[in-house]
Amino acid sequence: MKQKTLLFIAVAALAALASCSQDEITGINNGNAIDFRASVGKSTRAATHPNWAHNVTSLENMGSFNVTAISTKNDNSGKELYFSDNYTSVDAGNTWTSPYVRYWPNDKPVDFYAYSPEDLGATIDATTQQIVDFTPNKDVAQQKDVVIAYNNGTKSVNEGPGVDMNFKHALAQIEVRAKCPGNSSIQVEAAGYKIGHIPSTSTFTFPTVITGGDFSLDGKWSTPETPVSYYVLEKKTAPVVLGDAATPLMFGEYNAMLIPQELTSWSGGEQPDGAYLSVYCRILNVVKPGVAGSPTIQLFPVKDGEFGYAAVPIPANTKWLPGYKYIYTLEFKGGGQIDPEDPDPDDPGKKPGEPILGGPIKLNIDVMEWADEPADIPMGPVNP
Fold first, then answer.
1. CATH for the 30-169 domain, from 2.40.50.140, 3.40.50.300, 3.40.190.10, 2.60.40.2620
2. Within its chain, how far is the Cα of 77 from the centroid?
3. Of the four, 7, 17, 212, 339, which is 20 to 30 A from 286 by CA?
4. 3-state secondary structure (DSSP) of residue 301
5. Phi and psi (nearest 5°) for 11?
6. How far are the Cα atoms of 187, 270, 355 from residue 337, in angstroms, in the given order?
7. Which pLDDT tens digit goes with each residue over 37-65?
8. What H or E segment, with its residue span, contains residue 37?
9. Do residues 354 and 338 make contact, with C-beta atoms less than 8 angstroms apart?
10. What residues does each domain of the chain span?
11. SS3 of 1, please?
C-alpha cells in the first residue's frame, strides 16, 4: 500500500512539472490570448492587380509571418524574450493562428517584431533586433519581397482588440521596360535584362516606432557592400520585338527586389565602377522599312543570331527607397554602350563603354509616388 501511495505521489509530481513547463511555453492564463491583425503597407489585394509581379507580397498571399515578443521584466530591471512564433493564415490573411496560445504576461509593455518570409535569419532578442548581412538572391525569380512590422501593447489596452501589425515593404522594387519608337529602319529584339553592379549585402535594424500610417523604413539598412549583377533572361528563341509602347522585360513574372540605397552611377568606362542597366538584345537594320517581310542585317552583336548586352548608366544620385517601385524605361534612340562586364566576345575591337551604334546616351527621369516611380532612359540616337 505504501509503495502504491509513493507511486501516486511521483506521478502527480511529474504531472505538476509538465504543467509548469507548459506554463513556461505559453505564459500564465491571465485572460484573453494575444491576438494579431495584419495588414501590408499601402498595397491592395493582388487580385485587383493583374500585372502584379509574382514575388510581390500582399496580405492575401503572405501566408505566414514570424512574431517575436520582448516583454518587460516584472521588476522593471530590463527586458527579456517572451516568445518567437510563426503565424499562418489559410483564409487569405483574414485570420492568423499559431500552434501556441500566448497570454499577456502582465500589464507591462510588450514589444512585437514581425517579419515575412520567415527564413531571413533575423536575430531578435532583448538587446538586438536585426537581419544581419542580408543579400538578395542573384536569380530575380527567387527574390522575395521582405515585409517588416513593429508594434507594442499592454494587457489593459490590447487584450480585447488585439495588436495591429502593419507590414511595410523593406526593399525597393525594380522593373525594367524597353521600347524603340519612331524608327522603322531599326528593329530591336530583347530577350532579357541585367541590373549591373549593385551593392547587395546589408544589415537591417528593426524599427522601434509603430509601423503604421506613412511610417517609412528609410534609414534602417546599413550601407550596402559587395556589388552584384542581377540577370533576367528569357529564351533567345522567343525575343520581344520592341515597338512604340514600353514592354516589360521581366516577361510578366518577377520584378527585382533589391536593397534600398543611394547608387553610384557607372562612369561609362571600361570598368564596372557603378550601377547600370543592360538589355540583352540584338539590333537589326531593316533594309526596306515599312515593307512586310523586309530582309534585315544584324548590327549588334556582330555574330548573326546571337544576343548581346546594350548598357546605359543608372543616373547619378539615384536613391532607392524602401516600399517604392521604380520603373526604368530604356528607349532605343541609339544602341547604348558596350557592357563593362559582358562585352561582345566576337568583336574584340569594341571596348566596354564604347557606343554600340554611335551617338550619346540621354537620360530623362520622372519621379512619382508609390506604387510606381518611373524613370525613362533613352538609349541615344541611332546611326545605322
1. 2.60.40.2620
2. 38
3. 339
4. coil
5. -65, -40
6. 17, 10, 4
7. 788 875 433 333 444 556 778 888 888 99
8. strand 36-40
9. yes
10. 30-169, 172-200+223-378
11. coil
